[in-house]
């Protein structure tokens, strides 16, 4: 099979298309012939070494969807031919991938594999951010950075569905328009406007209950100035670079703020949590409350180019690698 392999960490050029043996499922695993793999910033973190892989070389990627083609010993929850999706695949930049059966979900008939590959990690991230990290509702005023990105577009629609006042930031007029078309009541072009000043203006000085920040270095500590006293700063990524070391006293100085650094894998720690999160995501997709926008598709052999575009912030919505 073909797979994208990383022999040493670095830039997009380290992504190498190679022939590899088809892996064999062990006890508790399924082997999936993939239709599509999701592209996410966590892949960049592993490629650069910001997040450490278990060993080198490794096949990149966590998210994907396809059809079960083999079962490991003891697997009874899936059958050969089932369509499945996952966010914990063992190297999804590949034509076939091993997945822990406990971390895969069956796809509803109404959801195709490309949509699932684009939605699972980003959509379940939006789910835990809006429903569990902070329970968003009609009284909530929130700020979401990178509003035109893959998570941002899903979160904007979902937060509006929950009744919130939704403020976003984006880096161009086109991205701002895209965000407005996907649930955002107000969008700030951070390249032309000071987002702290605009948040104060939009909220009449009240500020926000919660700020969702996947950007990192470029939005800190300004994000804290967008929060009302005892508001919550949710740092769930660092696309612009690693955050500086933080003196917790700044949370006191900015208004007795709360801060958290969550990840999806801390919110789907068991089968019940996975089923709840995926089920909530599938429901808002099926109802039409959330539409999954796939703006970039690349064949597997163009994974390096896909990474270049993602890191340059040239992408909008979701990006997938097509495999089948």
Automatic annotation (TrEMBL):
A GO cellular-component term linked to this record: cytosol
Highest taxon in the source lineage: Bacteria
Gene Ontology molecular function terms on file: mRNA 3'-UTR AU-rich region binding; NADPH binding; quinone reductase (NADPH) activity
Gene3D superfamilies: Medium-chain alcohol dehydrogenases, catalytic domain (3.90.180.10), NAD(P)-binding Rossmann-like Domain (3.40.50.720)
Listed CDD domains: QOR2
Protein keywords: NADP, Oxidoreductase
Residue ranges annotated for the Enoyl reductase (ER) domain, each copy included: 10-321
Pfam families, sorted: ADH_N, ADH_zinc_N
InterPro entries cross-referenced by the UniProt entry: ADH-like_C, ADH-like_N, ER, GroES-like_sf, NAD(P)-bd_dom_sf, QOR-like
NCBIfam families named in the record: PRK10754.1
Protein name in UniProt: Quinone oxidoreductase
Organism: Aureimonas endophytica
């Amino acid at each position: 099979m073909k797979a994208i392999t990383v022999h040493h960490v670095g830039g997009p050029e380290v992504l190498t298309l190679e022939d590899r043996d088809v892996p064999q499922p062990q006890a508790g695993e399924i082997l999936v012939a993939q239709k599509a793999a999701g592209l996410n910033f966590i892949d960049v973190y592993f490629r650069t070494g910001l997040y450490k892989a278990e060993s080198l070389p490794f096949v990149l990627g966590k998210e994907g969807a396809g059809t079960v083609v083999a079962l490991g010993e003891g697997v009874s929850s899936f059958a050969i031919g089932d369509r499945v999706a996952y966010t914990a695949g063992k190297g999804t930049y590949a034509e076939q991938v091993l997945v822990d059966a406990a971390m895969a979900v069956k796809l509803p008939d109404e959801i195709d594999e490309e949509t699932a590959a684009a939605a699972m990690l980003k959509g379940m991230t939006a789910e835990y951010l809006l429903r569990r990290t902070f329970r968003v509702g009609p009284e909530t005023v929130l700020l979401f950075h990178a509003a035109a990105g893959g998570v941002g577009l899903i979160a904007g629609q979902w937060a509006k569905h929950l009744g919130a006042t939704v403020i976003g930031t984006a880096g161009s007029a086109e991205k701002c328009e895209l965000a407005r078309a996907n649930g955002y009541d107000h969008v700030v072009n951070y390249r032309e406007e000071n987002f702290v000043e605009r948040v104060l203006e939009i909220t009449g000085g009240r500020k926000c209950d919660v700020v969702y920040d996947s950007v990192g270095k470029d939005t800190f500590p300004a994000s804290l100035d967008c929060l009302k006293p005892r508001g919550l700063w949710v740092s769930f990524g660092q696309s612009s670079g690693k955050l500086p070391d933080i003196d917790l006293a700044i949370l006191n100085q900015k208004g007795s703020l709360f801060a958290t650094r969550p990840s999806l894998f801390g919110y789907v720690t068991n089968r019940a949590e996975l089923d709840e999160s995926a089920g909530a995501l599938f429901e808002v997709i099926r109802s039409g409350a959330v539409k999954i926008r796939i703006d970039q598709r690349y064949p597997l052999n163009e994974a390096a180019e896909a990474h270049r575009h993602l890191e340059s912030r040239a992408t909008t919505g979701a990006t997938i690698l097509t495999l089948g």
